[in-house]
Amino acid sequence: MDESLPIASPQRGDPPRATPADVTTVSGVDQVGQVAIVRGAQTSLSVTESIDVLGFGWYQVGVLACVGGLVLADSCALGIVSPLNDALDAEMHLTTTMKATLPTLLYLGTAVGALIAGPIGDRTGRVAPIYVSYMGVILTSLWLISLNAEKQVELAGCRFLMGFACGLGQPVSFALVSETMPSSARAAALYALAFFGILGYMLASFGMRLFLPDLGATAGHWRHLVAFTAVPSVLCLLLSFWLLEESPSFLAVSGDSAGVQRVMDKIAASNVSGYRSSSQSTNRWAVFSARVDRDAGHSMLSTLAAVSVLVDQYFWPALAICTVDTFRGFMVAGTAYTFPKLLSQVEDSRFAPATLDLISQTTAIAGIVVGVMLARSRVPHRAVIGTAAVAAAISLLSLVVMNRGSSVLVLLCCIAVRFTYHPMHAALSTIAVETFPTEFRATAIGGYHLVSKFGIVAAPAILEMELAESTARAVVLLAAAAACAGLSSLALPATDAQLPLKDFADPNRTQGPAERAAETLLKMKLPAGRCRSEDGATYGTMPKLSA
Questions:
Q1: What is the C-alpha to C-alpha distance for residues 395 and 374, in angstroms, rounded to an integer?
Q2: CB 483 within 8 A of CB 389
Q3: DSSP letter at 10?
Q4: Which of 17, 58, 391, 529 has the highest CB neighbour count under 10 A?
Q5: Which one, of 451, 459, 418, 421, lies nearest residue 334 by Cα?
Q6: Closest C-alpha to 69, from 241, 248, 239
Q7: What contacts 133, CB < 8 A, 6 or more positions away?
Q8: What's residue 349's pLDDT?
């Protein structure tokens, strides 16, 4: 076979046959057995299905480490917003309007960043906004540290831009992670991002324990706290320059065959024991480039076209996702703002309020563990969201009727609510990435992040006024938001985390599942039960191919 010839899709009814000369056998893929990778033979296996073959490995670990820092940075900013606001007031003597406005500006900046990042990520790629996001967090942290009481207007702009930097990386991070994970590990990977969120809250609590132990009652060392929370962004930015590659699904939909082959070669070198990259890599991964070659010249949808398709074909799923995340965001931002104040009011505690807050943040890891177990058990994502929301509402209402002077009772309620944060977020993120196609996945994620930020932006301002009147009323408002999130989850679309992601909104742009499955069976041994066609038929078993 002339290896210089372009790759073409096989003709229907005449599937290509793998011969010993066409097959390279390697072992160690996902600890399942052998995988026969076709060299030179022609197929129409999609990029997502190809990643399913290679399984979860060190490449995916590197991706999670690189983009997890963005989730961590966002959680740090959210976790310290209330104590930092009080510390800034103690040093700079902020006006009442300015003190109430600063948290809102941070959340508003996050919303604007998410809105812009989605279309940019769908047009230029997932990686560039991640770099800009990290650099923005670092620069705005340095700017904040340099400010003093005479620069309150600059302070407002700094908080907005810090939120903008955090929001800029969020949609593309979720898109990149979902597009580089095998189907069976997708939900768990999004839970791993939620784990980075927990680490961010824990880091914020630990930093407050060191530099603001009174949670902002005095100015303390708030500059040290800001610098401390910026360190992970510096480390993750350096790591990203070294490890991070573009999404292979994005490259495929963009028609970049050479880019797909380069990234897939790196994934194989990282995940497959015994695989060695060579000058034959282009032909070795011809199996993964056939769909790209077929769609070469296809351009990503413009932003207006993406919004048009989104409204026309995905309006009701998008509305349900936005509604749930708005109420969820109000609850999360509101409790993050309110809980430090509640913990600072307990009367019988032997521990500093910051220590109690750190304990409640740490125990939220159990929520991640339970969420991963539910995902592996194929519990519907809608059920996870609804159950978690109801549990949060009940826990918040218990704060109203119990003695809030008891540190043990208040701490237990805080733990119960924070236990639900990340299962709700990860399950909703999984539904979103599986609902929208690669063509405009980042735009859709950015859109629902923008809408949800209205709840996050409104929470501090509304709760600040409510807390001035009655703590019980503020807590009841948070419980109502949790209950509304649970009720809205009934309208969410049902998705299956074990199926390959969709690349195109137009179903005619993909091959039929039966044809794709038949061609795949001729080419390689897939891990049993790992991959299924869109009609639900398992095609992961066949005799091993050998050279």
A1: 21
A2: yes
A3: P
A4: 391
A5: 459
A6: 239
A7: 70, 113, 117, 165, 166, 168, 169
A8: 60
Residue appearing with tokens 């109430």: 100
Collect the ranges in the chain with pLDDT lower than 50.
1-44, 278-299, 510-547
H/E segment holding residue 240:
helix 222-243
Which has the closest alpha carbon to 112: 159, 174, 161? 161
Q: What is the pLDDT of residue 457?
A: 74
**Two structure tokens written together for 50:** 């190809």
**From residue 71, how far is each of 56, 95, 137, 205, 370 by CA, in Å?**
21, 31, 12, 16, 20
CB distance 36 to 525 below 8 Å? yes
- Distance, in Å, from the CA atom of 107 to the CA atom of 269, rounded to the nearest integer, reads 41
Contact 321, 432 (CB under 8 A): yes
**Residues contacting residue 42 through CB under 8 Å, at least 6 positions apart:** 7, 8, 9, 10, 16, 286, 290
Q: How far apart are CA 411 and CA 417, in angstroms?
A: 10
Each residue of 142-152: pLDDT tens digit? Answer: 999 988 877 78
Q: Is 22 exposed, middle or buried (0-12, 13-18, 19+ CB in 10 A)?
A: buried
- Give me the pLDDT at residue 301, please: 55
Tokens of 282: 């282009």
CA distance 66 to 363: 24
Residues in the chain: 547
Mention every residue, 6+ apart, whose C-beta is less than 8 A from residue 135.
165, 237
Any alpha helices (H) in 12-57, and if so which ranges? 47-54
Sign for the CA dihedral angle at 33, 36, 37, 43 comes to negative
Establish how many alpha carbons lie within 13 A of residue 398's alpha carbon, considering only the half-sphere containing its beta carbon.
16
Q: In angstroms, rounded to a whole number, what is the distance separating the alpha carbons of residues 483 and 477?
A: 10
Distance CA 154, CA 452 (A): 27
Give the SS3 label for residue 502.
coil
Q: What is the pLDDT of residues 290-327, one digit of tens each?
A: 444 444 444 455 666 666 776 778 888 889 999 999 99
CA of 504: how far to CAs of 53, 160, 441, 490, in Å?
21, 35, 10, 26
Contact 431, 320 (CB under 8 A): no
Structure tokens at 427: 């399950």
Residue with tokens 């028609």: 255
Residue 269: what pLDDT? Answer: 83
Q: What is the DSSP letter of 80?
A: T
Instruction: Give exposure, 53-79, as e/b (b: 16+ Cβ within 10 Å).
Output: bbbbbebbebbbbbbbbbbbbbbbbbb
Q: How far apart are CA 382 and CA 486, in angstroms?
A: 9
Question: What pLDDT is attached to residue 404?
Answer: 59
How many CB atoms sit inside 10 A of residue 313's CB? Answer: 14
Encoded amino acid at 432, one letter: A
Q: H or E segment at 37?
A: strand 33-38
